[in-house]
Every structure is written in structure tokens, then in C-alpha cells.
Design a protein that fits this description.
mainly alpha; 3 helices; about 40% helix
Length: about 70
């Protein structure tokens, strides 16, 4: 992958940034581009100084305050 030059945007970084579940996406990208080697993917991301802002999507569920009742 070191001899490939992308002029616009890197598809690997774009795909990782647009994903919701970062861990699953990393595994898929490693399978797709790096023969399932996560260490090569980590080296590639470190080369471009790519940082993760959130590890994965967190569900924040709210409890309902009252029960809705309908009178018919």
C-alpha cells in the first residue's frame, strides 16, 4: 500500500471516519486491504496520524417519565 498515492481522500480513512462501529469497521478494512492483519492497519493509521474520537457507538436510552394512557 505504500506505493499507492491518493490525490483526493484516502478511502480507508474515509470509510473508518464514516462508520458507526469502529472496531467492526477496522476488522473489515483489515480484511479488505491488509490480508486481515490488524497490526498493518494500525501502522497505516499511525503513519497518517489518524486518531479515533469515539471507540464505538454508545446507546443512551432514556427511561419514560410517565406512562401514556388513552381514554376511549
Amino acid at each position: 500500500m505504500s506505493n499507492v498515492i491518493y490525490i483526493n481522500k484516502d478511502p480507508i480513512i474515509c470509510e473508518l471516519d464514516s462508520s458507526v462501529d469502529k472496531e467492526s469497521t477496522k476488522k473489515m478494512i483489515a480484511f479488505k486491504y491488509f490480508n486481515s492483519d490488524l497490526n498493518l492497519l494500525e501502522d497505516y493509521l499511525n503513519e497518517f496520524n489518524h486518531r479515533e474520537f469515539n471507540k464505538s457507538f454508545e446507546h443512551k436510552l432514556l427511561e419514560p417519565k410517565t406512562q401514556l394512557e388513552f381514554s376511549f
